[in-house]
């Protein structure tokens, strides 16, 4: 799974790849690959401390609108996940002054 994360993160400009915060799920066990390949700092939240990762929790709740907790993600195609990623990244957010993530990223890189 980290190989797909690495592939996606490599597409971002280096200035947007400073840190990444994970929860303690087994799917994040290969985080060392990101450290090695991208020179990125990784952090893990304490178990059962959801307030330490507000953005992660919010994003998970958005994903759960499309894929319930019982979803077997090995049966979800990469294309479906990329479509969801695009939908979420093109969603205006109050914390970004009602701009999308992509709009803010373009402002920062121009």
From TrEMBL:
<dbReference type="GO" id="GO:0015074">
    <property type="term" value="P:DNA integration"/>
</dbReference>
<dbReference type="GO" id="GO:0003676">
    <property type="term" value="F:nucleic acid binding"/>
</dbReference>
<feature type="domain" description="Integrase catalytic">
    <location>
        <begin position="1"/>
        <end position="109"/>
    </location>
</feature>
<dbReference type="InterPro" id="IPR053392">
    <property type="entry name" value="Transposase_IS30-like"/>
</dbReference>
<dbReference type="InterPro" id="IPR012337">
    <property type="entry name" value="RNaseH-like_sf"/>
</dbReference>
<dbReference type="InterPro" id="IPR036397">
    <property type="entry name" value="RNaseH_sf"/>
</dbReference>
<dbReference type="GO" id="GO:0005829">
    <property type="term" value="C:cytosol"/>
</dbReference>
<dbReference type="GO" id="GO:0004803">
    <property type="term" value="F:transposase activity"/>
</dbReference>
<dbReference type="InterPro" id="IPR001584">
    <property type="entry name" value="Integrase_cat-core"/>
</dbReference>
<protein>
    <recommendedName>
        <fullName>Integrase catalytic domain-containing protein</fullName>
    </recommendedName>
</protein>
<dbReference type="InterPro" id="IPR051917">
    <property type="entry name" value="Transposase-Integrase"/>
</dbReference>
<dbReference type="GO" id="GO:0032196">
    <property type="term" value="P:transposition"/>
</dbReference>
């Amino acid at each position: 799974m980290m190989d797909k994360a690495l592939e996606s993160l490599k597409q971002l400009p280096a200035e947007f790849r400073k840190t990444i915060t994970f929860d303690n799920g087994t799917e994040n066990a290969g985080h060392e690959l990101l450290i090695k390949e991208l020179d990125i700092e990784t952090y893990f939240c304490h178990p059962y401390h959801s307030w330490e990762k507000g953005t992660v929790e919010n994003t998970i709740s958005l994903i759960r609108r499309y894929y319930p907790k019982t979803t077997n993600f090995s049966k979800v195609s990469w294309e479906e996940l990329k479509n969801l990623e695009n939908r979420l990244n093109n969603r205006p957010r109050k914390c970004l002054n009602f701009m999308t993530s992509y709009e803010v990223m373009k402002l920062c890189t121009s």
